[in-house]
């Protein structure tokens, strides 16, 4: 299957790691703050919305995306496009209200992308780990039959 993903920064050291694609939406907002003294402020920021649990986060940058062919496991989003947009707008407004509490500001959604974040599932000794391809964090997951099956299927 063909998917658009965030270009991975980290890759596993284990050759038999299994790919898992996690759904996310990325939104770029531009803002303009009016100030009487010292001039106006303009800028942009990125909001990432988790496609499974519906949480929204501020991101450092809009990541580089690529389209790839994969036979990895692709997780389906639990929220729809409209819900993700609402969550992103809520996060954007909360950020702007906190940062520019007493100033008049405006903002607009400039760019949006639905993509996948890549995780690598692997076994390390008796532990099962997920490697985040963006941060490099290794997340230990509980040992359940499905975890074993997922990793063993990749061999």
Outline the structure in words.
With 155 residues, this protein is of the alpha+beta class. The protein is 18% helix and 48% strand. The chain contains 2 helices and 9 strands, in the order ββββββαβββα. It has helices at residues 81-99, 145-153; strands at 2-6, 18-34, 41-50, 56-59, 65-69, 73-74, 104-124, 127-132, 138-141. The strands form 2 sheets. Strands 2, 3, 4, 6, 7, 8 and 9 form a 7-stranded mixed beta sheet that branches. The chain has a two-stranded antiparallel ribbon with strand order 1-5. The mean pLDDT is 89.
Any key phrases for this structure?
155 residues; alpha+beta; seven-stranded mixed sheet; two-stranded antiparallel sheet; 2 helices; 9 strands; 18% helix
Tell me the layout of helices and strands.
Blueprint (H helix, E strand, L loop, with lengths): L1 E5 L11 E17 L6 E10 L5 E4 L5 E5 L3 E2 L6 H19 L4 E21 L2 E6 L5 E4 L3 H9 L2
Parallel strand pairs: 2-6
Antiparallel strand pairs: 1-5, 2-3, 2-7, 3-4, 7-8, 8-9
């Amino acid at each position: 299957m063909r998917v658009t993903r965030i270009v991975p920064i980290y890759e596993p050291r284990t050759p038999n790691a299994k790919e898992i694609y996690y759904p996310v939406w990325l939104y770029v907002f531009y803002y303009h703050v009016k100030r009487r003294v010292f001039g106006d402020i303009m800028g942009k920021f990125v909001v990432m919305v988790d496609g499974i649990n519906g949480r929204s986060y501020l991101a450092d940058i809009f990541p580089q995306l690529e389209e790839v062919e994969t036979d990895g496991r692709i997780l389906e989003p639990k929220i729809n496009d409209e819900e993700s947009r609402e969550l992103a707008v809520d996060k954007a407004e909360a950020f702007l209200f906190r940062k520019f509490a007493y100033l008049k500001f405006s903002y607009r959604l400039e760019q949006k992308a639905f993509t996948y974040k890549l995780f690598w599932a692997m076994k390390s000794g008796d532990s099962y780990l997920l490697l985040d391809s963006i941060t490099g964090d290794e997340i230990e997951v509980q040992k359940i039959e499905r975890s074993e099956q997922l990793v063993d299927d990749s061999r």
